[in-house]
Predict the 3D structure of the following.
Amino acid sequence: MAHYHRLTRDALGRLTYQLLGDWLVRQSEKRLQEAARILQAKLEKIIAGDAPFDIFVRWKTLAQQPLGWDPDLDDGVRQNIRPFLEAGVLAYAPNILKAVDRGKDVSSAPWFHKFHGERRNDHHTTLAEKREARGLAGAGT
């Protein structure tokens, strides 16, 4: 994850389907094939981005939340690494995830009223909710 900024949606797709898929075809050992299929399924869930493998950014509105694996580098490593830690696909899993950060959000923060000012990081929204919010936001402009 040292170079996670290079892990775009396309790059993760190539890793999941081309590289891992080709390796699966060439692999003859059943135990390794099964482990690779499990890894591939987890990566597919990260690409799709439905809970709990979504990226939640508490300072963005629901309409601004990423759909699937579409990280914004400005959101930081802790926000963007969460799907990989939730899926358990990293060889080393640092203990950097916090359900709630210290301090309180300001009343103008998008999620202030839902979390009563808590700085929650472990909230999950569905893709349908995000799409609906984007549709409403698009209709309002």
In short: The helical segments are 9-26, 30-48, 77-87, 112-115, 127-140. The mean pLDDT is 90.
